[in-house]
What we know:
The protein is mostly helical.
Amino acid sequence: MTQTGQRSTSSGKQMLSEQVHAQLRDAIMRGDHAPGDALKPQDLAKEQGVSLAVVREALVRLAGDGLADRLPNRGFAVPAFSDRRWQEIAEARRAVEPVMLRMSIERGDLDWEARVRAAHHRLARTPAYVPEEGAYYSGAWSEAHRVFHRTLLEGCGNPVLLETFDRMWTASELARRWSAHRDPARDGAAEHRGLEEAALARDADTAAALLAQHLTLTAAGLIGGAHPEDG
């Protein structure tokens, strides 16, 4: 095979792997696969109509995202339901994200301020719940929520820290997906508004404290409130 042909084959395989990765990611986040369910490469390859190698590559990426566990026998499974797992994720987020926010406030420029304001505006204007999506947060709100939190931290300018945030966020969203729990007494909109105001006022102490409190309340809503059968 020529080098051009090899590159074309490799490119095609990569594209298929990305498609399978996206499809499996969405299926897990929708709850199509219950906590602890095996993700069998052969079955998935047959369902997707692709090669075993393509599926394995997609599963390895899912494991890197925190949406699949690699088993000792080289198999894969959806992460098992465990309060301890979410406690560990919450602890990691409280340790890392307030530090990143302090760095963002110190390093962020005018463009970062504009992005924070725009991301908060979109979040505030996006309905958290829509009838067709039932008790779960709407897909549009979940994405606006992710973008707002990530934008707050992007001013830190550290891609390694941002990659860490992305992995922790995905794991937290999976826990959220398994929980239809709502806290009617919690004013999430006010929490987000406070974060935006403190960040744009360059008040690092207040912003970091608000973010730590925000993450603590989120964890309290997920831990003990998620039930695998709701998936």
